[in-house]
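Q: Okay, next protein. This is Aldo/keto reductase from Paenibacillus silvestris. I've checked the sequence twice, so it should be correct. Can you predict the 3D structure?
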Amino acid sequence: MKYRQLGDTELSISEVSFGTWAIGGSWGLSNDDEAIKGLHVAMEAGVNFFDTADVYGSGHAEELLAKATKGKEDDIYIATKFCRAGDIYDAKTYSEETVRAYCENSLRRLNRERIDLYQIHCPPLAILKDGHVFDVLDKLKAEGKIRHYGVSVETVEEGLFALSKPGVKALQVIYNIFRQKPAEALFPQAKASGAGILVRLPLASGLLTGKFTETSTFAADDHRNFNADGAQFNVGETFAGLPFTKGVELARELAWIAEGRGNMAQASMRWILENPNITCVIPGFKNERQVADNLGTAQTPSFNEEELARLRSFYENKVKDYIRGPY
């Protein structure tokens, strides 16, 4: 495993890390025993960073992390998120009283005294511009409740504004072969500001595994079913904002990237890690097999300049016009 510095913080993070949305909920049926086994496989391979949120399974993902990392609190970093348990458009959700309660509840579920990275969970731009929530986070940091804080964003505009706040040490963004816009202005600015970049949904909700067909279906409680067109939250969180059948078609055209690189998933994440401004990818998982497969990214051969140019042209000419939702 290779490690990268999280911005200008003291944290050195495994370039392949993991997100826990899938084991918490909203990705169909999951099994806690399988999830715990997967977490242990990841840690044994050198993964030292996991991302979660208080709304993943209503806190269940945090509890699973507490169980899996017990006794390793000094060695395994945990990032969690807050605000989506409330009304994200209501200023009261970001008051000191409310944020402090969110923080204490996450600390209790994680069975920790400090959160390594506390992130605002995709708030509206107006909330970021109000700025009060950053004052609250500064207080929690001064008290030792959190080590660092950051923002999970939906759009480049939100990310650029968040970076204007000196305390922001990480941005979590959607970035993959189907969603390349953040690399243009956001990533260089993050580097200049001393903030790390955490890449969520690196496989575009599974499209970039190449395993789906136009007739693939998903369980009723899977966001790839209920949010396929953005009915519940930002459409960009599902299939990178692409209509499903179009995404399947485009993924089929990318089959070549797997040649000499194991499979499409590993190749897709290796492409992400080619960007030196990125700290880590955080794919999801449900079991040991998926963890092991994602870990293969660390040994996947790089892309050459010609291949990188081909993928950029593919995005510009065949993908970006089909992306829905603000980004």
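A: Here is a summary of the prediction. The chain has a mean pLDDT of 95. Strands lie at 3-5, 12-14, 18-19, 49-51, 77-82, 115-121, 146-152, 168-174, 196-200, 280-281.
Q: Noted. On to the next one.
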